[in-house]
Amino acid sequence: MENKKLFRDSAVVGLALFATFFGAGNLVFPPIVGMLSGSQWGMGAFGLLLTAIILPVLGMIAVNNSGSDVRILFGHAHKNFYTISCALGWFFCSLGSTIPKVAATTHEVGIKPLLPNLPIEVTLIVFFAILYFFCRQKGEVIDKVGKYLTPLLVGIMAIILIKGVADPVGTPAATPSVANPLSFAMHQGYLIGDLTLGLMAANLFIRSLKDKGYSEKDSKKGIYIAGLVCICVMFLIYTGLTYIGAQGASFYDANVDQTKLLSGMVYNIFGKTGQVLFGLVVALACLTTGVSVATAIAEFFQDFFKNKISYNTLLLIICVAGVILARMGVAKIIIFVVPIFYTVYPPFIVFTFLGLFDRFVPNDGVYKGAVFTALLFGFIDALAFIFPGLSGVFAHLAIIPLYSLGFGWVVPSVIMAIVVGCIYRNKPRMYFNTETGVLEANAK
User: Fold this and answer.
1) Which of 58, 160, 319, 422 is paired with 276 by a 20 to 30 Å CA distance?
2) What is the CB neighbour count within 10 angstroms for residue 332?
3) Which residues have CB under 8 Å from 225's CB, separation 6+?
């Protein structure tokens, strides 16, 4: 009975994890991969599985595997790495981008096509009022998302996918529009950036099982179950969306807008009813992501300010800021956060893979060498984005293996992990003590 209860609770966490990852961007992304992959849409779906689904889930598992708190994982690189990177990440990437973006997307993609004359302010006020309602009792957020919002989202998605797969309205292009659908999908999945959420929000999901009274051992087991549930649900939905997008070759050319492709295909499958279904799916996908991210932001800054500002006050600030920023529109919101993403993503990937194999890492020098090298290359990529006129300068880095593919940080990070690991070979490993807030030698 206890195992059944653990599986059930872990499945709820897995559904909430899926809902956190599955925002509106993830909804419209697989169809364009399917369309450009043509008859090889299955390879496109597999590429998305590797980098857009499995990689973000591995981020959470890496935290779980290395000590159940992201501060322990990040502490191997530097005692302040968690505070600085997460403060920047939550403030700029999440509060400054994700939260207002999901609200603005709800209006522009989900509501405006149905109610073109409705002011965006009305949508935003309603959106953040609902978000505040679901977030205000933080100990119940994961249960609310996993038990109520996610099943509704998955249920509507199932209706669209079953009809779209069982009764195709078009035929995939015989020849793909991209040279290699697998590598194309993998690279595009990598650029979605959900790994940042997998790492930074990991504590929220791990704690949700501990709060139910499960032991450390059972909680860790439950996170593996939750990760598997999330992967399975995401893969089924991504595969269905990829196939529906592949059918779009019968109606659109390769330059079609991502949102227009999906909304158009849903309309082709269901007619006018499809517009309503699409609007509901977009609104739910944005809301579930917003609820989980807003909760994680409020929890982080409550700890950051040492409980001097209450959780609900921070949540209210987040909602008010979200309304103000979301009025800028999706396009303007995305632009300023791209350099930050370029900077933090390479070291976050390093943390993920080192965290997965943490028991085999001999010392913290391996973390320091690999993480800060990846961070340097991420910063260079950010500069290249901000200052495109300096492309000639950055072109000299093309001699580095994999640089032209966007992975120039990989080989240097491996080399520096070995070099700095050798320098630290006689030093003890340091672990972040979540109770005292300091690093301690060999005190995991």
Assistant:
1) 319
2) 13
3) 6, 7, 10, 11, 14
**What is the spatial distance between Cα 17 and Cα 150, in angstroms, rounded to a whole number?**
9
Predicted confidence band at 335 (pLDDT cuts at 50, 70, 90)? low
Which residue's structure tokens are 């499809």?
274
Give the side-chain half-sphere CA count within 13 A for 154. Answer: 22
The answer to whether 341 and 379 are in contact (CB under 8 A) is no
Cβ atoms 197, 60 nearer than 8 A: no
Tokens for 3?
Answer: 């195992």
Which residues have a Cβ under 8 Å from the Cβ of 268 and sit 6 or more positions away? 169, 170, 251, 274
Question: Which of the listed ranges 167-171, 212-216, 415-419 does the model predict with the highest average pLDDT?
Answer: 415-419
Q: How many residues are there in the chain? A: 444
pLDDT of residue 123: 94
Can you list the alpha helix ranges (DSSP code H) found in 22-80? 24-37, 41-48, 55-66, 70-75
The pTM (predicted TM-score) of the whole model is 0.85
pLDDT of 279 over the 80 cut: yes
| Residues 39-59 pLDDT 10s | 999 999 999 999 889 999 999
Of 344, 208, 312, 282, nearest to 25 by C-alpha is 282
CB 40 within 8 A of CB 255: no
Q: Is the pLDDT of residue 25 over 90?
A: no
Domain ranges of the chain: 2-336
Amino acid at 30: P
Pick the CATH number of 2-336 from 2.102.10.10, 1.10.4160.10, 3.40.50.12280, 1.20.120.1730: 1.10.4160.10
Region of 248 on the Ramachandran plot (φ > 0 left; ψ -120 to 50 alpha; else beta): alpha
Number of H helices, E strands in the chain: 21, 2
Q: Which amino acid appears at position 296 of this protein?
A: A
